[in-house]
Amino acid sequence: MGLVEPDATRLDSDDLMRLVNRVREAGIARGPGLRLDNVEAPSVAEAEALLHVVVEALEASPVAKYEWPAVSRVLEPEALASLLNISVSSLRRYLSGERDTPDDVAARLHHLALVIGDLAGAYNEVGVRRWFERPRTALDGRRPSALLEGDWAPEEPGPTAVRDLARSLVAFSVT
What we know:
Blueprint: H1 13-25, H2 30-34, H3 44-59, H4 64-74, H5 77-84, H6 88-96, H7 103-119, H8 125-131, H9 157-173
């Protein structure tokens, strides 16, 4: 989603505090973040519970301001505009902050950020770009990009299937 640097290999208590503070600055998971303000070093159980709440809050909270740069670093403008069903000129205006991102576009952008985040556990940036264009058996031979056409919404069956497939690759890569 572009809120934190993705290259951490392990998460210690200072990293957890930075993560929670960054998420809180974006206006997400403010309540759970406050619980760590008075804790010197959270226990493993406290950290696990907090991360669970934060991840759920992140998944439910589009933050276009951070997601535009993160997603546009991976997907070319033409491909991203097509997946979002907007023009390249609108994409550039939203990315620059010249115009506010409409809610429906922000929801699609957020969904793509989550999919890309899931894929980053299994692919490099080139692989992520190619993943959207290759037919997938789990999608009945369709390309993920074909299920993300027009004015789609993340909760629709096609986009949900794309996210589920991307998420399954993360689970597979850690086993």
